[in-house]
Specification:
Blueprint lengths: L8 E7 L4 E4 L5 E14 L6 E13 H7 L7 E13 L8 E13 L22
Parallel strand pairs: 4-6
Antiparallel strand pairs: 1-3, 1-5, 2-3, 3-4, 5-6
Length: 131
Amino acid sequence: MSKIYRNAITLKGFLGKNATPRTNANRTPIVVLSLATKSSYKDKHSGEFVSRTDWHRIVAFGRLADSAKSLVKGAYVEVEGELQSREYTPDSDGDKRRVWEVRAHSITQLEHPPRAAAENLDAEPADEVPA
């Protein structure tokens, strides 16, 4: 029987850069992914299609991190997990910052969809934040 999550999110998109493997203080493997999802809509007034790219910080731990650490920029993946926020304090100042990220429960590499290419993304991956 699979687990039931009340806070569930599923994203499909392209990686904007290679997976970033790390370990935490307990020596648990961690991998951070920068995932781009794209959506578009037709503007009511101009009739033109408007395209939007959103970047998502994905974090995986343990065995999932070990299997995801070889993912490379441009890979098309599906991520299932839960959306979480956390606060951190950058070294440069004492102000706390909040970051939203997806804690992955599964990561599946997919075949590239027809007519899709990672190079067509109209934005850059999000800046790094501490793990």
